[in-house]
Design goal:
six-stranded mixed beta sheet, about 375 residues, 7 helices, DUF3089, alpha/beta, four-stranded mixed beta sheet, about 15% strand, single chain
């Protein structure tokens, strides 16, 4: 009897390990399958829209202390910035609805700690940071093109535009501004630029747009230029960072997609070590910055990366290990080996901090 029980226990252990192994191998597919809404997008059953007159509708605002104000050793925040940043955070919603609710405490906390703190804060050396919350689209809307997914992205974009118009009416007062975004935020940030900023007089106030980690193509920019020097203004910076071991994993597609008969599109790649849109290889960097769960003030690690744009992708090699907690490593595994999407700001944090200041200074000098 004891031998029989032991065999059963061993069998269950082997089955559990095998299941974990399969789950580990196919983690990305499992994540997407679990996240998929499984129902059609219903415009009559969407979360309540945000009221941007309410402080709770923002993850960052300059008149209050919030996650965008965090300090990094050696990188000073501006005490009286003359320029604003309008920041659109990436996906922090992992539910199975087409769009997130703005009263979801867990989602908002994830946005503040996992996005605003580690991304928007890179711009506090030059600018006052405004970061709206919005009804984020389900992550599968960006990995598989579909009509339902496009509608969900459209709803998120509607919020971003409403937030920007509120900011412009109540807070801007004619000041220059930067649009900064990542991932989902970059997709809806591109729409904001195309529909609201670029066509009219607001374009004269645009210092630059940092649309990082999204499927941003040269063709989709229209007449917005790609930033081709470190101090170019009125232009767009974008990159998607991948390591040499990356072959496949979770990646973004354009949704809605371009016409079937359209020629292949070229993804924008500006190298954040040189701030040029060429294929030159560069190494070093002013400093990668990573946070841990202790809340300790991080210190930049200079010379951490080598980067080169190749066929629209920023090919990155890191020097040393990237500090990641358990949940972050699960995310990395789901994204695919060598997919640096989750740390596309962190790898170049000090470079972003310095470049935003340089572009602001160049913009203000040209206005004089």
């Amino acid at each position: 009897m004891k031998k029989f029980v032991r065999r059963i226990a061993v069998g269950f252990a082997v089955l559990l390990l095998a299941s974990l192994g399969v789950g580990w191998i196919w983690l990305g597919d499992i994540v997407l399958a679990v996240a998929a809404p499984g129902v059609a997008f219903d415009p009559g059953d969407t979360p309540p829209p945000p009221n941007y007159a309410e402080p709770s509708a923002w993850t960052a605002r300059p008149e209050r202390a919030d996650a965008a104000d965090v300090a990094v050793n050696g990188l000073a925040a501006s005490e009286a910035p003359a320029v604003d940043v309008f920041y659109l955070h990436p996906t922090s919603f992992l539910g199975a609805a087409w769009n997130a609710r703005l009263d979801d405490v867990a989602v908002n906390e994830a946005t503040d700690a996992g996005s605003t703190r580690i991304q928007a804060s890179a711009f506090n050396g030059c600018c006052a940071v405004y970061g709206p919350r919005y009804r984020q689209a389900n992550m599968t809307a960006f990995t598989t093109a579909s009509a339902d997914g496009a509608r969900a992205i459209g709803l998120a974009g509607d919020d971003a535009i409403a937030a920007f118009r509120h900011y412009f009416e109540h807070d801007n007062h004619g000041r220059p501004f930067i649009v900064a975004a990542h991932s989902q935020g970059s997709v809806i940030g591109l729409r904001l630029l195309r529909e609201v900023v670029a066509p009219g007089p607001l374009r004269r106030q645009l210092v630059a747009a940092y649309l990082i980690g999204g499927p941003i193509t040269v063709e989709a920019l229209g007449d917005l230029p790609v930033c081709d020097t470190p101090t170019a203004t009125g232009c767009v910076v974008a990159w998607n960072a991948r390591g040499p071991e990356f072959t496949t994993g979770i990646d973004f597609v354009e949704n809605p997609p371009p016409p079937a008969d359209a020629p292949p599109r070229t993804r924008v790649c500006v190298n954040p070590l040189t701030w040029r849109a060429d294929a030159a290889r560069a190494e070093g960097g002013l400093g990668a910055v990573f946070w841990d769960s202790s809340g300790a003030t991080p210190t930049p690690t200079p010379g951490f990366v080598t980067a080169q744009c190749a066929t629209g992708t920023l090919r990155v090699e890191v020097r040393g290990s990237v500090p990641r907690d358990f949940m972050s490593r699960l995310l990395d595994r789901a994204l695919g080996a060598g997919n640096y999407h989750a740390i596309e700001y962190g790898l170049f944090y000090a470079d972003l901090h310095a470049n935003a200041k340089a572009r602001v200074e160049a913009f203000l000098a040209r206005r004089e």
